[in-house]
Specification:
Elements: E1 21-25, H1 28-40, E2 45-49, H2 64-84, E3 103-106, H3 112-117, E4 125-129, H4 133-146, E5 151-155, H5 159-176, H6 182-186, E6 189-192, H7 194-205, E7 211-216, E8 219-226, E9 240-248, E10 267-268, H8 272-277, E11 281-286, E12 290-291, H9 308-311, H10 314-337, H11 342-353, H12 365-379, H13 381-397, E13 413-416, H14 420-431, E14 436-440, H15 448-453, E15 458-460, H16 468-471, E16 479-482, H17 487-500, E17 505-509, H18 513-526, E18 532-535, H19 537-549, E19 553-560, E20 563-571, H20 583-586, E21 592-598, E22 628-629, E23 643-649, H21 650-663
Parallel strand pairs: 1-2, 1-4, 2-3, 4-5, 5-6, 13-14, 13-16, 14-15, 16-17, 17-18
Antiparallel strand pairs: 7-8, 8-11, 8-12, 9-10, 9-11, 19-20, 20-23, 21-22, 21-23
Helix pairs in contact: 1-2, 1-19, 4-5, 7-14, 7-19, 10-11, 10-12, 10-13, 11-12
Length: 667
């Protein structure tokens, strides 16, 4: 139960003040994003929701407005507890002091009148995070016309369409505002996908000893989760320690802490003294950095053998091999019993097999016996050829059908759900060459064509029905990823899978933190030897959308249990807590840490650090060297012209951006 829902402030007649932010959406991401902007960044927020209940959670008795109010109430209470207990970010005070409550509006569509009532002409940023791409595009075009200076953050699943839309809206802003600063134009429109943001983290939760990958300027940053060291062992700190986990030597699975877990929560960006004192705790460390290769297509499951293996069955191939061996034996027998040449003996044997040779009347007895045996072997060719033709036609007919899980499959990941999130996770797992079996109830789901093209074994059926998970070979699987949009379905699948295989690694997609904590503790008590993880897509994606609304670049988000650590690229100029300080002095425990410096001259820098530099991998030229310096000397003094890559908590990055806004006035 969500508990008591506080009454919402009624503000129908009060127009919003200038510089506020507007969030439009119809699901959990919109509510999470409003919470992030209001309670982490201290922004004035107007939240536009459709009336009625959440279409993605029809079983919930609360309306969209009621669910948002309940979430805001819980977040406000958690913030008050954190403030009374003395936060660890230090020195920033209450981020919400003097900031009014979230203004909630209800409208079926973000039309011109609705956006004007929300104050889009005076807003600083607008986030369009509806689940429907078409609705987001229409609203973005309308908002750009009403306010050319507005910063737009758009949620789109279609990547190519998102690139074209971003260019179109930036061109519209440039035409409406001649002479605009290129830096402001670059941040005026940002297209993001919650599926792309959350998929790497969700895929990593299914792997033991998993690593989270962040890409920056063609380089891969690997954040590896290290288990607690055994007695007498020393944990490898890697390049630096990013987090201390709640897991310990005596409790390897940990408590799966979140922001509201108190002392049980993981500790992000600890200092050296905290790391030294945390003996026996699991860690997340930054490992060596490697260069990223250009995108390559995912390999097909079962497509590594010869082409014949994809057309003809193994039984038919063995039968053909037997007939060929019999023909070879007859040729050898003919050579041994007659003094004929090898070519002529092979010729006569083939004629006998096909029934085209004359009877061997008057020939030696050995020749007649060989001819009879050849005729008998030839009788086997007719059913063999007929079976080959039928199987070839059957293969062509079923080339577009889904592949069933093969016999003997083991060590695979069972993926439940092929919606937006499940489809992206499937691509990620196949890029890592991890065998996958998909379970999907809807035969027309979004990811079914992709699974068919990649030859991924797929089971169509309701996962809550008996026999469906067995068909996916759950007994021999290494992990279960339950990523449907319904929490109860994910939980039921996890419970049934654990009853079949108690030591199965399970990762669930759950929205509510309180529900996730209760589920985790129950599963942990029932199966103490198995690892259980729960993740929320909106919780993983909301920080990236929030930072984009602040006009900054996020390289990636890494989940640390149910907390999130952000990797971002920032210009040192305008940040007094960075500029003029050494790398060691700029480090704020529990808030941010400088990981790398871009040594490239400002005029030659890549605007998007997450992009891979263009080069020809097949050519004679080597890839251009990266301008990022990762092995930083603690005494290096950060200059205003530097661009740095930092790891930060949500509150730490919010403090950096708030400080910059206080130095650089909003244009």
């Amino acid at each position: 139960m969500l508990g008591f829902v506080p009454p919402l402030p009624q503000q129908p007649g009060r127009p919003p003040s200038a510089g506020h932010m507007i969030v439009c959406g119809d699901d959990a991401l919109a509510r999470r994003l409003a919470v992030e902007l209001r309670y982490v960044y201290g922004e004035r927020v107007t939240l536009l929701l459709p009336p009625g209940r959440d279409a993605n959670s029809p079983e919930t008795p609360l309306t969209q407005r009621g669910r948002a109010a309940a979430l805001f109430g819980r977040m406000s209470a958690a913030m008050n507890r954190a403030g009374n207990g003395g936060g660890t970010t230090g020195g920033s005070g209450d981020t919400n002091a003097g900031v009014e409550a979230v203004r909630i509006m209800e409208a079926p569509e973000p039309s011109d009148d609705v956006l004007e009532e929300a104050g889009v002409d005076r807003a600083a940023a607008l986030a369009l995070v509806y689940d429907d791409d078409e609705r987001n595009i229409r609203a973005a075009l309308t908002a750009r016309r009403l306010n050319p200076r507005l910063r737009l953050v758009i949620r789109l699943y279609n990547r190519k369409l998102g690139q074209h839309l971003e260019e179109l809206l930036d061109q519209a802003a440039a035409v409406a505002m001649p002479g605009i600063d290129p830096a402001l134009l670059d941040a005026s429109t940002t297209v993001l996908s919650d599926a792309d943001t959350a998929a790497p983290a969700l895929a990593a939760t299914a792997l033991t000893g998993s690593s989270k990958i962040i890409q920056a300027e063609g380089l891969l940053l690997r954040a590896a989760e290290r288990p607690p060291p055994r007695p007498g062992e020393t944990a490898d700190p890697g390049l630096c320690t990013l987090a201390l986990l709640s897991s310990t030597t005596n409790d390897p699975a940990g408590a799966e802490g979140s922001d509201s877990s108190g002392d049980e929560a993981p500790q992000l960006l600890p200092d050296e003294s905290a790391v030294a004192a945390a003996t026996g705790r699991g860690t997340v460390v930054l490992e060596a950095v490697s260069r990223a290769d250009p995108d390559r297509p995912a390999t097909r499951m079962g497509g590594r053998g010869a082409p014949l293996a994809q057309v003809f069955s193994r039984r038919l191939r063995w039968s053909a091999l037997g007939v060929a061996a019999a023909a070879l034996a007859l040729v050898i027998a003919s050579l041994l019993t007659t003094e004929d040449t090898a070519i002529h003996s092979t010729y006569l044997t083939l004629l006998d097999l096909l029934g085209m040779n004359d009877p061997a009347e008057g020939a030696p007895a050995a020749r007649q016996i060989i001819q009879i045996l050849s005729g008998i072997a030839g009788l086997l060719l007719l059913p063999l050829l007929l079976a080959a033709v039928l199987e070839a036609f059957g293969t062509l007919r079923t080339a577009s059908s889904l592949r069933r899980p093969p016999r003997g499959l083991s060590g695979h990941v069972v993926l439940l759900g092929l919606g937006k999130i499940g489809t992206r996770v499937l691509v990620r797992l196949r890029e890592l060459d991890i065998p996958v079996v998909v379970v999907e109830e809807d035969p027309d789901a979004r990811g079914i064509p992709l699974a068919r093209s990649m030859h991924v074994p797929t089971v169509i059926g309701d996962v809550t029905q008996e026999g469906v998970l067995e068909a996916a070979k759950i007994r021999r699987a290494r992990a279960l990823l339950a990523l449907t949009s319904i929490d109860t379905t994910n939980l039921e699948a996890a419970l049934y899978a654990r009853s079949v295989k108690p030591d199965l690694r399970v990762a669930l997609r759950l929205y509510d933190d309180e529900f996730a904590t209760a589920v985790y503790r129950t599963l942990r008590t029932a199966h103490p030897g198995a690892l259980t993880r729960s993740r929320s897509v909106s919780h993983l994606a909301a920080p990236s959308f929030a930072v984009a609304m602040m006009g900054r670049q996020i390289l990636g988000a890494v989940p640390v249990e149910r907390k999130v650590m952000l990797f971002a690229a920032l210009e040192v100029a305008g940040h007094p807590q960075l500029e003029g300080r050494t790398v060691e002095q700029a480090f704020r425990a529990g808030a941010w840490r400088v990981l790398a410096i871009d040594a490239t001259p400002p005029a030659d820098r890549t605007p998007d650090l997450a992009a891979i530099p263009p080069y020809n991998p097949d050519g004679d030229t080597v890839p251009p060297p990266s301008g990022l310096v990762w092995d930083l000397h603690p005494g290096y003094v950060l200059r205003a012209t530097d661009r740095v890559v930092i790891a930060a908590t949500r509150r730490g990055l919010a403090e950096l951006l708030r400080r910059q806004r206080s130095v650089v006035p909003r244009q």
